Amino acid sequence: MIAFLGLFVGIIIGVLWNVPIPDQFSPYMSVAIFACLDSVFGAMRASLAKQFRADVFISGFFGNAFLAVALVYLGDKLGIPIYLAAVIVFGSRIFNNFAMIRRMLLDKTRPQI
Amino acid sequence: MKKIRSQVAVAIVCCILGFMLTYQFRIISIQDTKLNLQGDSSQITAEVEQLKTQKDDLNKQINDLQNKIKNYQQSAANKSDVNKQIVSDLNNLNLITGNTDVKGQGLILTITPKNNMFSSDITAQGDVITDKDLVYLVNELRFAGAEAISINDIRVLNYTGIKTSSGVSNIFIGTNDRISPYEKIIIKAIGDKDKLNSAMVFPGVLDAIPSSSYTVDAPEKSNMITISKSNTVTNFQYARQVK
After folding, report:
1. Number of domains observed in the structure of chain A
2. ipTM over 0.90
3. Which domain holds residue A88?
4. Is B11 helix (H, G, I), strand (E, B) or coil?
5. CB–CB of B23 and A37 under 8 A?
6. Nearest CA to A64 among A38, A45, A103?
7. How far is Cα B234 from Cα B230, in angstroms, rounded to an integer?
8. Where do the domains of chain B lie?
9. Could you read off the pLDDT of B116-161 as tens digits, one per residue?
10. B3 CA to chain A: closest CA distance, Å?
11. Does residue A69 form part of some domain?
């Protein structure tokens, strides 16, 4: 609940506050967002499994985003599209997490036999 | 206590995520509008095509009208000797001003860009033919008595400036036509073919072309070269006769 509240506040800030971030950071931002989404899905799964730990979530959130951005920057300098690796890994992990969330939710709602 | 703190931390993190998402959406939409402002490239290509066909049509019209004028002149010339004299003067002037197609003996110079094995394009700035090289060659030809010169079938007149533009990607011949220095360049000149030839093969003259990226064939003497007329209209705006 409080997470959605935070998300909502963030969206409002994003709409209202015009922060000047240079255009060339935009590809880094998108990869960072992907990494963050992955962390959020992981957190949702963990909370459903009752294994959620805030410190793991927060460190994963920033760590993943930072690592992804660093990889994209390195790929830019080396001329290899490393961001593809980040996108593929985070994408597959998001789908995995979603599959587990789905299963847990279905298990919960299934009438006990 | 610890639970509240962790929940606040989660809220802050989600807040950051929301902010990043909206921000990114906004940047992408701004970039899209910018792209739209710059215009669709296919649209521009279509426009270029359209203008090209328009230009061809207009050139055709010019040719038709000039033929008509010629007919009128012919019929006028048949009437009296004075008219005949005037028409022959006019024809002479047309030859000089480049308003008619001309033919005669002369020289053909072919400059071919080398296909570099490692890079298909000539990249080094110093290895590309520029306006200066072409102007030099044209000047040499003129000095050797060339009466009509064309570069890639673009007539070079007294008033035709030659200038490199867009870095080294184009060379303008006059204000309307341009050639690419990365494609074959054929310079035709009508005049005394032996004189023109000796001017071209004189040691050092053809060295103007960067030999690292172009091959220059030996100048080809020909007994019949046709050089088409100039498609520019020369109207003096400023120069007036002194009375």
Report:
1. 1
2. no
3. 24-109
4. helix
5. no
6. A38
7. 10
8. 1-31, 58-97, 102-227
9. 555 545 555 557 888 888 898 899 999 988 889 999 888 888 888 8
10. 9
11. yes
